[in-house]
């Protein structure tokens, strides 16, 4: 039996030395190339743990991209074991997300699916979490806060143009780049290539960030993402001092959200344009709620929205 330290070494040995891979003498003539977005566990080194959530733990790490290049990355270790169908769906979605390329969306480099636990390899955002920045910098000015909102709207506009429903937009899922730009992150709940998703159960979902139609009918869409973006703006201008609906239980908040009569009120001192956008995001009827292009246009009137992917089916392959 041929033994080598790594799978790559093993394959190369079988190919180069013509060592049979089966007892019947079967030879490996040519190995099938590994897809670019498949990253080997052996090429990853996990360092400092950054945090953990419902879907896994996140570490600062390094990725040996080639013999000549090593990148600092963020590595998300997923919790639990995945069945074959789930793994296939996960890899398919990661392949799609790897194509995203926008300054306000965290870059996905690939996945490490060949061993447990599975890992997602992401761009390392050196500015850390938006939530921590806001909590630790209480004197940050409104201009900077408004820029975070513009960054977030721009990133979500880009994702919406690729038919992505994020489903978990919140300050805890936003990161900051080296130039203090906001980046939409954490696609653990995202769904690509679907205009409407229905869930029968909302277990472990962040109730206080969810839209009325999500809580009442289990429906997620880009319009439900717009509602959650309004909650993100509320978090930004409260500087993440508390969670939304701070004096309410999840059940009490759920009743208020579904009623449509008690949307979150912008904190005192919030710029007028931000108040207006939040109010539009919190419109109960989805048909009257703006798209992300409309949100970006209000926050940054002279800016052109990111171009859409014209043919998503082609784009996604």
UniProtKB/TrEMBL annotation:
Any Pfam family the entry gives: PK_Tyr_Ser-Thr
EC number annotated for this UniProt entry: 2.7.10.2
Subcellular compartments: Cell membrane; Cytoplasm
Keywords: ATP-binding, Cell membrane, Cytoplasm, Kinase, Membrane, Nucleotide-binding, SH2 domain, Transferase, Tyrosine-protein kinase
Region (Disordered), start-end ranges: 298-317
PROSITE patterns tied to this protein: PROTEIN_KINASE_ATP, PROTEIN_KINASE_DOM, PROTEIN_KINASE_TYR
UniProt-listed SUPFAM superfamilies: Protein kinase-like (PK-like)
GO MF term (any one): non-membrane spanning protein tyrosine kinase activity
Superkingdom per UniProt: Eukaryota
Record InterPro entries: Kinase-like_dom_sf, Non-receptor_tyrosine_kinases, Prot_kinase_dom, Protein_kinase_ATP_BS, Ser-Thr/Tyr_kinase_cat_dom, Tyr_kinase_AS, Tyr_kinase_cat_dom
CC annotations in GO: cytoplasm; plasma membrane
Catalytic activity: L-tyrosyl-[protein] + ATP = O-phospho-L-tyrosyl-[protein] + ADP + H(+)
All copies of domain Protein kinase, residue ranges: 44-303
Record bears the keyword Membrane: yes
Repeat found in the keyword field: no
Record's bilayer topology term: Peripheral membrane protein
UniProt: ATP binding residues: 77
PANTHER family: TYROSINE-PROTEIN KINASE
Family per similarity comment: Belongs to the protein kinase superfamily. Tyr protein kinase family. Fes/fps subfamily.
Protein name (database record): non-specific protein-tyrosine kinase
Organism from which the protein derives: Panagrolaimus davidi
């Amino acid at each position: 039996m041929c033994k080598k330290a790594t799978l790559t070494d093993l394959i190369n040995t079988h190919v180069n030395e013509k060592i049979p891979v089966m007892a019947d003498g079967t030879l490996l003539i040519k190995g099938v190339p590994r897809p670019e977005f498949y990253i080997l566990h052996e090429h990853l080194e996990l360092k400092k743990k950054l945090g953990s959530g419902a879907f896994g733990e996140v570490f600062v790490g390094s990725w040996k991209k080639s013999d000549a290049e090593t990148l600092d990355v963020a590595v998300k270790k997923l919790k639990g074991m995945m069945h074959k169908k789930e793994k296939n769906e996960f890899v398919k979605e990661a392949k799609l997300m790897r194509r995203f390329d926008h300054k306000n969306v965290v870059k996905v480099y690939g996945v490490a699916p060949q061993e447990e636990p599975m890992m997602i390899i992401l761009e390392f955002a050196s500015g850390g979490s938006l939530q921590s920045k806001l909590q630790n910098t209480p004197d940050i000015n409104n201009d900077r806060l408004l820029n975070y909102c513009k960054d977030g709207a721009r990133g979500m506009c880009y994702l919406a143009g690729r038919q992505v429903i994020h489903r978990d937009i919140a300050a805890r899922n936003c990161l900051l780049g080296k130039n203090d730009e906001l980046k939409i992150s954490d696609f653990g709940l995202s769904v690509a290539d679907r205009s409407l998703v229905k869930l029968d159960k909302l277990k472990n979902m962040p109730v206080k960030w969810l839209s009325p139609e999500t809580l009442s009918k289990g429906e997620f869409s880009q319009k439900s993402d717009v509602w959650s973006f309004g909650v993100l703006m509320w978090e930004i201008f409260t500087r993440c001092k508390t969670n939304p609906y701070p004096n309410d239980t999840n059940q009490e908040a759920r009743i208020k959200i579904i009623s449509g009569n008690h949307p979150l009120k912008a904190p005192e001192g919030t710029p007028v344009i931000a108040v207006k956008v939040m109010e539009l995001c919190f419109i109960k009827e989805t048909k009257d709620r703006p798209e992300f292009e409309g949100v970006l246009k209000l926050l940054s009137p002279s800016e052109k929205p990111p171009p859409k992917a014209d043919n998503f089916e082609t784009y996604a392959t």
